[in-house]
Amino acid sequence: MAVEEIEHSAGGVVFKESKSGPLYLVLISKRRIWEFPKGHIEPGEDTKMAAIREVKEETGLSDLEVFDGFSFTVSYEFFKNGNRVKKDVVYYLMKTNSQTVKISDEHIGYMWLSYEKALNTLTHKNSKNLLREANSWLMALYGSWRA
To answer: Which of 2, 8, 71, 119 has a CA 20 to 30 Å removed from the CA of 36?
Structure first.
């Protein structure tokens, strides 16, 4: 069956600094999927604007620092109303200094996790690959971790 629809979304891999390394924010959806915050791009938005808005809406975080050098696109297909849909999601790497997360009604929980724990917690292979790329880029940027 051919793809009948294409959706475009954007999101963020959010981290905060800790003495032992970055802690990544992972959310659990109502469908019990561990993932990063993301959502549809609205008219008039570019991917970065949409990613920032979606992360703010889904996490309540407002002090987001977006790293301009990192973006990663995840593509996958699914069925909606019997139609095959291709979805492209552009993710940006974002840093916060906030401790408090206020999730939206799209999710039922969240955790701040080390790279290894986040990698083992994320549900989908695409999310794991995204985290590997983001963490590798971040480590190359910092050289070695410092907090």
So the answer is: 2
